[in-house]
Amino acid sequence: MNILILGNGGREYSIGLAISKENSHSLYFCPGNGATDQLGSNINIKDYNELALWAKENSIDLTIVGPEAPLTDGVVDIFKANDLVIFGPSKDAARLEGSKVYMKNILKKYNIPTARFIETDSLEDARKFINTLTPPIVVKADGLCGGKGVIIASTYEEATNAVSDMLSGSSFGDAGLKVVVEEFLDGYELSMFAICDGDDFILLPAAQDHKRVGDGDTGPNTGGMGAYAPTPLVDEELYEKVRQRIIRPTLDGMKKENAPFEGVLFIGVMVVKGEPYTLEFNVRFGDPECEILMPLLKTPVSELFYKGATKDLSNLKIEFLPKFAVGVVMASKNYPYSNSEAAQIIVDEIVDNDLRQNSHISYAGVTKDDDKLFATGGRVMVCVGIGDSIKEARDRAYGLCGQVHFAGKKVRSDIAYQALR
Ligand code: AMP
Ligand code: GLY
Q: Could you give the CA distance from residue 356 to residue 351 in angstroms, rounded to a whole number?
């Protein structure tokens, strides 16, 4: 097939890497990054109508969308109107990520477990609800805020101020003109991913992300500093609860809403006393979770996404390798506070056979200049280790990190700690 991947991160690189290993497809990235051109060709077309025309002219058989922005902008609708096969949700269905108010109302309407909440544009109503809760109290801006729209307030006053700043437009502009206020759920967090075709779904092995920049989950939130899967924190009973109580009613509900969900449903799950609650939905793969899930798939990734895009998942028997994967993000010096100066990346030749065969890099914020690779983004790459245990996979991931050099490289040293303690 001719396959087009939209996006420029490590997530898109890892999907491309998995597909390139099938050795039977031609890959295109839009816009891709300084390393995806090793896997295929980078193109740069910003307008989605123009991109759809390009896809038709170049006989693209399948388009895979990485990030949320093209989805909430309606790229899937445009491609489908051009009779192109594309894997991802429609603009309507992508509101599950684009609007927290919409998402919470779907959860409520279809009786899907989530934190008790109100959605409002009134400071007075928010204040009344806040007074019924016990801190910490969670305040969320309605719209997309690049992962920064959630405030965990430790006092009533802080919660009320957060609401007030959001509603006035001063903290997140239009994205904060409505807010969700909800109770704090105290448990452990999982990233779960369901590949959906509108009717059917396949649940992938559960992963854990590490959102804070510092060891022991300290410091500010990031896009994610590392991930591992499958996590031993989930047993078959919990998987089944997530299938029956969260994914099934969501897919049935979205059909009733005339917005059937096709694509990757990313469920941010909080497990409280053994019961799963939906923290949030995203409508795409997580990054860095994607980078560790792709290498665990035995089923060809292209087939999984093609069947997802053509309502054919019921005919797919999914298989996973009986292995673990750990991904450690290498970030730039000033991440997540500010941009860093471009730094040249040197990767040593991996002489250790075991390491060479069981680890790899998924490149993200990198730019190529004169055939040299430079770290130019916040998250520069993910070093992925594969193993028969989480510990083995983690040792390999960190082993690979040790072979990579660029000025200011920043790495968390405790990825997968919740599984290993
Ligand atoms: P979100 O963007 O909704 O995933 O929120 C970002 C992070 O805030 C989540 O990954 C959780 O760690 C935390 N969070 C969000 N909602 C809650 C909640 N109701 N209780 C506890 N933590 C939460
Ligand atoms: N790693 C979390 C996310 O992609 O949103």
A: 7
pLDDT tens digits, 81-114 = 999 999 999 999 999 999 999 999 999 999 999 9
Q: Write down the pTM of the prediction.
A: 0.97
d(CA 262, CA 310): 9
pLDDT tens-digit map of 226-267: 999 999 999 999 999 999 999 999 999 999 999 999 999 999
Q: Is the CB of 303 under 6 A from ligand 1?
A: no
Match 């700690």 to its residue by tokens.
417
Determine whether the shortest distance from the Cβ of 34 to ligand 2 is under 6 A. Answer: no
Q: Closest ligand 1 atom, CA of 182?
A: 19
Distance from the CA of 12 to the center of ligand 2, in angstroms? 13
Tokens of 294: 């792709």
- Which bound ligand lies closest to the C-alpha atom of 270? 1
Asked if residue 382 lies in contact with residue 289, where contact means CB atoms within 8 angstroms, the answer is no
On whether the CB atoms of residues 181 and 138 are closer than 8 A, the answer is: yes
Helix-helix angle 100-109:248-256, to 10 degrees: 100
Helix (H) or strand (E) holding 328: strand 324-331
Q: Which domains does the chain have, with CATH numbers?
A: 2-91 (3.40.50.20), 116-183 (3.30.1490.20), 188-315 (3.30.470.20), 324-420 (3.90.600.10)
